[in-house]
Amino acid sequence: MKFSINRIELTKRLNLVSRAISSKTTIPILTGLKLKADNSELVLTGSNADISIENKILSEDSNNMLTVVETGSVVLPARFFTGIVKKLPEDLVTIEVNKENLQTIIKSGAASFTINGLNADDYPHLPEIDTNNSIELNGDIFKEMISQTVIAVSNQESRPILTGVHFVLKNAELMAVATDSHRLSQRKIKLPQIDAEKEYDLIIPGSSLSELSKMISENNETVKMNVSENQVLFIVGQNSFYSRLLEGNYPDTSRLIPDASTTNVEFDNIELLGAIERASILSHESRNNVVKLTINPSDQVVKISGNSPDVGNVEEKLDPKNVDGNDLEISFNPDYMKDALRAFGKSIIKISFTSSLRPFTLLPTEDSENFVELITPVRTF
């Protein structure tokens, strides 16, 4: 194998593919990065068995400066190879692999490196997924959907199913929901262009979705999702992102969201987030890390407070847009609240309560049927 390529473009693609490579893998060859060159493209592949990323560098794109002299494939140690390419002196790099011993020569300007390669035939094959049975998603909206739900996945391996986001496609509507049993986040998007008969039910690890989100740029590109029995493939431009699916049945979360409330408050989201951040400065010094919200609708008064026996206390009167219902005092984890509020961005939100010990919901005042966050309060007595 022999080819030359733009060093800057190659570095950019190596950084992307390397996100899927872990030095802690139990399969030694997966610490490497697979390169495969044919007449029209160079394909880079990285994997850690849970996720795999494949990137195609096309020779037809003049920015890539890709010229393939001899086709072939090799697996190179990812950390060393990426580090070498980044430091090369010239814009053009030439890579040549000896067929007999797989020694790989990397040249750029006056610099020349030789590193040992591995046989690409020993690299695990990517799963075969039917790309004809796909759904297309708006990249910006799907990226937002991921960020709004992945915050609620569990990081406790004792219940592996909760470390993922549950996606359900039904009646041309895609719903994503995640919960760690203390909080829940649910987002729906309508897909009118999708065949209403098409249905999916899958659970994707939250860690996979976080990596996928980094690949989706902010230019409204299309994301294609293809599902097989135990794998999902996302195609974003020239990138293919594979992830394993979690096995098992996700708990029924629909019954957790209350359909009635006794106290309701509306806030400017950014203002409330600022108040929670200030209150949490002291709550983080306390063993139980809670803040308290006190609501008196008759007086139109809403206060937030927190204290740490070792440091002191904080109290702040809030400025709600609207408040109605019964008097209420409720305590909660401010970190859960901050994560939820950040997912709403700049908006007016409605928080609905049923009692001081029951989960409460946060919804945007606009488009409220498509996004809801739920937080379980903390018992302080």
From TrEMBL:
Residues 1-127 form the DNA polymerase III beta sliding clamp N-terminal domain. Residues 255-378 form the DNA polymerase III beta sliding clamp C-terminal domain. It is found in: Cytoplasm. One of its GO terms (molecular function) is DNA-directed DNA polymerase activity. The keyword DNA-binding applies. Pfam families: DNA_pol3_beta (PF00712), DNA_pol3_beta_2 (PF02767), DNA_pol3_beta_3 (PF02768). Its main location: cytoplasm. Residues 137-252 form the DNA polymerase III beta sliding clamp central domain. It comes from the Bacteria. NCBIfam families: dnan. Forms a ring-shaped head-to-tail homodimer around DNA. Belongs to the beta sliding clamp family. This is Beta sliding clamp. It comes from Apilactobacillus xinyiensis.
